[in-house]
Amino acid sequence: MNLTFVSDLIAAVFSVGIIVGYHILLRMRVRRDPDYTIQALLNKGRSAWVERMMKDKEGILAVQTLRNAIMGATFFASTAVALIVGTITLSVQGDRLQQAWNTLSPIGPLDEHLWLLKLLVLLTDMLVAFVCFAQAIRLFSHVGVLIAVPTTTMRPHLVARLFIQGGRYHTRGMRWYYFAAPMLFWLFGPLLLILSSCVLVVVLHFLDRSPERALDVRTGG
Length: 221
Hints:
The chain is mainly alpha-helical. The protein has eight helices and no strands.
């Protein structure tokens, strides 16, 4: 094993440990405080929204709102496809770009096979993100049909469960988008992978907290 391979392997293990450790701590915090995350707040809002739409028969408003959600998920899914194509293009033009990557690497020339492995990891990340957003679009479309059904035929809490599941897929897709940032910096070297993973964890810490919990921290409550 050369120095490049060992350093990249150590950096990858360390970065995965940082991100996995953060999510383990987040889950432990959610067990103590179920309302800690913004996702929990959104799920409550989705349940209340579906119940109100079906109870008050606000079909037009419901369809318009779901259309906006579908358009947002479609945008991210299309962007994921574009990034997949871009990643494949990088892998094909590796010989032309290898000299530029070597110049940016602080530890010496990059291993060509390892560089292709990094691109494969990035490609897999974008593919998973695309699948998550596609599932979100599918579930949002189902909700758009079921939300107009009378409550005597379809209970609101079942429709709300589908809506919440679609929201979870959307959140997972965004999460894989965030994971792509350290993977992209990994192409420049292991040091940037570690630094970007640390920055990502800090950003996720602020993004995952609900506004209520963030306000409690600021006010000391």
